[in-house]
Each structure stands twice: as structure tokens, then as C-alpha cells.
């Protein structure tokens, strides 16, 4: 059945690949990011019609609430929610700036909590599925990514707890934990060096993560699951 699907961070990278796959599967997609023009360009490029773009900063709860009010008014109830909005400000902890730490935690962790809370208002009566995008470093840790890892580890705990809270209302909540994926976020990573640690011997593509996200969205008997999409990287960490 076609679902109204909202993808935060859908303008590029992993979120864009998820939006593309959802549209190919016949779902109506709302692409959300801070940059409206980029979100609109992505929405216009999706298969099918009726897709929409909205601008919202997930770290601002009022903006998130307004976004869901707009969606409810103009499109109806959300069936699928994907939280792919995220940032990294990597640095050793002692060199991390306080404002960077706050913005990483606000965007990656609180942002997804805000969108889930707003989406639940209609999902609790009609059912639905949520996929949060975590990271392998949330499970394994990584030097230079203390705060980013904390945001993703927090997201994992949040996902499992929320899955327990809402399962009886037919709302499923799962997490995909990617390794190195080729997007703007990893543009500065020295690929040759990183690939040596990946058993499958390559960076993942955004489509690799999108496939896993779609699987979790569409699997009616999976909730509270953490699915690594990392080419086996966790085996070497
Ligand atoms: P990109 O930088 O390519 O894309 C990030 C997306 O998030 C963009 O659409 C961006 O749009 C949006 N975004 C960022 N901040 C906000 C905000 N405050 N409010 C709304 N939207 C926002 O990143 P990736 O696609 O690589 O990452 C997607 C997710 O996957 C992130 O959560 C990331 O942490 C996670 N991840 C990525 C990995 C990788 O190797 N690439 C590995 C593991 C996890 P805009 O700037 O216009 O707002």
C-alpha cells in the first residue's frame, strides 16, 4: 500500500537515495531539509508525481511541529518517517568547541526525537513505521568522533525504547547503522586508508543504505532492530 513518506535530510546523500527508492516503489514522498531549493530539486527528480519539498531545521522543535502541521493539512497522515538529517563536526574531545557539540547533539539526536514525537500524533491512531539513521560508530566508538558517536548511540537507545512504547499501536521503529558511505559527509575522508579496514573493500553507496531502510519500513514483523550496513567494518573495529 502506498504510504505518505517523510524523509528528513532527503535533499542529498543517504536521505535522497531513500526518497528515490520510496518514490520508485510508488510512495508519495515529502523531502525535507534546511535548504528548500535543494529539497525541491530532489522532489522534482523523483519518479511519479505529487511529491513535495519543505524546509525545516530539525534541531528546532517548533519548526518540526509546524512542518508536521503543514503535512497533515495538505497531504494527510504520515505512514513512513525516515530520519536521515545529520551533521558531523569531528574533533578530538579536548579540541571540540562547545557550540559544535551542542549543534551535533541537537541535530542528530534531539532532531530525530522531535520528528518522531511529531509524527506519532497521527501514527498512534493509524499505525506507521520509522527508520532512524544511526552509525556504526554509535555502537563501536571512534577516536575523534566522541560527540557524534554519542549522538548516534543515543539514537539507538531512543529507537529501542520508542519501539517498546508504541508497538501495541502498530508503529514500528528501527535503526540503520551505516559505515563509510560515499556522500558529502565523507568527502574529506582519506578513502584509500579507510577502505583497508572494510572487509568488503569499498565505501558503501547511499543506495546500499536506502535498500536497508526500505526493507525495515516494509517489514511488518520487525521492530527495535539495529541493522548495520557497513561492508563488515564493525568486524574490524
Ligand atoms: P549529507 O551531508 O550528504 O546529507 C545530510 C542531509 O541532512 C542533507 O539533506 C542536509 O540538508 C540535511 N540536514 C543537515 N542538518 C539538518 C538540519 N538541522 N535540519 C534539517 N536537515 C538537515 O549526509 P549523509 O547523507 O552522509 O548522512 C545522512 C545520515 O547518515 C546522517 O544522519 C549521518 O550522520 C548518517 N551517517 C552517514 C554516514 C556516511 O558515511 N555518510 C555514516 C554513518 C551515518 P541541509 O544541509 O539543506 O539541511
From TrEMBL:
Keywords: Fatty acid biosynthesis, Fatty acid metabolism, Lipid biosynthesis, Lipid metabolism, Oxidoreductase. GO terms for biological process: fatty acid biosynthetic process. Gene3D superfamilies: NAD(P)-binding Rossmann-like Domain. InterPro entries: KR_dom (IPR057326), NAD(P)-bd_dom_sf (IPR036291), Sc_DH/Rdtase_CS (IPR020904), SDR_fam (IPR002347). One of its GO terms (molecular function) is quinone binding. Residues 3-184 form the Ketoreductase domain. The keyword Hydrolase does not apply. The keyword Oxidoreductase applies. It comes from the Eukaryota. Belongs to the short-chain dehydrogenases/reductases (SDR) family. This is 3-ketoacyl-[acyl-carrier-protein] reductase beta subunit. It comes from Chanos chanos (Milkfish). The gene is cbr4.
Amino acid at each position: 500500500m502506498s504510504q505518505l513518506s517523510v524523509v528528513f535530510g532527503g535533499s542529498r546523500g543517504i536521505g535522497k537515495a531513500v526518497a528515490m527508492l520510496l518514490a520508485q516503489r510508488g510512495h508519495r514522498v515529502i523531502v525535507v531539509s534546511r535548504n528548500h531549493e535543494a529539497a525541491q530539486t530532489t522532489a522534482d527528480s523523483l519518479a511519479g508525481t505529487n511529491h513535495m519539498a519543505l524546509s525545516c531545521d530539525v534541531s528546532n522543535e517548533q519548526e518540526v511541529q509546524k512542518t508536521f502541521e503543514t503535512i497533515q493539512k495538505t497531504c494527510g497522515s504520515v505512514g513512513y518517517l525516515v530520519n536521515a538529517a545529520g551533521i558531523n563536526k569531528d574533533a578530538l574531545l579536548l579540541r571540540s568547541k562547545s557550540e559544535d557539540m551542542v549543534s551535533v547533539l541537537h541535530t542528530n539526536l534531539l532532531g530525530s526525537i522531535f520528528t518522531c514525537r511529531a509524527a506519532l500524533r497521527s501514527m498512534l491512531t493509524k499505525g506507521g513505521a520509522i527508520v532512524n539513521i544511526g552509525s556504526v560508530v554509535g555502537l563501536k566508538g571512534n577516536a575523534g568522533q566522541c560527540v557524534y558517536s554519542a549522538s548516534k548511540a543515543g539514537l539507538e537507545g531512543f529507537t529501542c525504547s520508542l519501539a517498546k512504547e508504541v508497538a501495541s499501536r502498530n508503529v514500528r521503529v528501527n535503526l540503520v547503522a551505516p559505515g563509510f558511505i560515499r556522500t558529502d559527509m565523507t568527502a574529506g575522508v582519506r578513502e584509500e586508508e579507510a577502505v583497508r579496514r572494510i572487509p568488503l573493500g569499498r565505501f558503501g553507496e547511499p543506495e546500499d543504505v536506502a535498500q536497508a531502510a526500505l526493507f525495515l519500513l516494509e517489514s511488518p514483523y520487525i521492530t527495535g532492530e539495529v541493522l548495520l550496513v557497513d561492508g563488515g567494518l564493525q568486524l574490524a573495529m
